[in-house]
Amino acid sequence: MDADAKQLVEHGHRLIAENKYAEAMPVFEQASKLLSDVCKKAIAIANVGVCYAKLGNYDEAKIYFNAAIKCDPLCARAFFNRGVLYDQVGNQEAALHDYTRAIKADPRCADAYANKGVCLKDAGQISDAAVCFLKAVELEPDEPKFQKNAGIICLMDGSPVKALQYFVREIRLRKKDKRLKEIDKAAACAFVNAAQCYRAKADFRRAISAVEWALEIDNRHAGAYEELGNNSFFLKKFTQAVIDYTKALVLSKNPVLVEKIEGAALESKLFKNLAKDCSMAEEGVLSIDELIVKLDRAICDARMKFKINGQ
Length: 311
Prior knowledge:
By secondary structure, the chain is mainly α. The protein has 17 helices and no strands.
């Protein structure tokens, strides 16, 4: 019986890998009825819940996670995935509770430490979040996202040098990965994070170099253009900062950038008049799209002027 169940479990995992969740559910259901080992039976039941969650049926998913926990009160996978489900519906308190129980059931569950760290970080508990993120790195040092989490929390904790070490490791790990399309996006973020660390150390040459690497990977990365703007501003290149921040605004439509553009424009002789437009956008008189049109026009006019003047 268990041999047949093992084949069913393997088949179910293959279907999940192919995103065939509806087909995987009855396979795991059947496997759970054949398995005699309580732990394996609970995991098979939890996998049915995972499939329901992937299909957006959270209520049914929760029923299966609860059933898995009833079958095996130490089923870390059920606690972890129920925590993910609570996270997805915005119940962070319940999610944190389940991640903690998953860790108690399986102290080597790196994903549970990482997700618990995110909950704690969002709750402003930076020191406790750092403990969780660093534990995840300790358990799975070759997982890039854990290196990234550790870097971000070190940056938030005012340790840019330590943060940089984690971001550099993240970049190296992602370079080894062959799944280029999705990995490259994450690698671009890693370079931007590294650039922030270099800027915090006033190493602007390396900061700009890191951002350039990010843009080489993803030339539509709004965060990279924003970080270029930050460096330009610190180097008192205010005109260039306006241009960089505008590129970021075009890509992200993030209203936070309006204030940055206004600050750079006030310091720039060329774009000083744009500060008033930014102020109007902050007050809601101008929409972001209307502001972008004005910024683009001013930048184009400036470029024409530079060309004419030979600058």
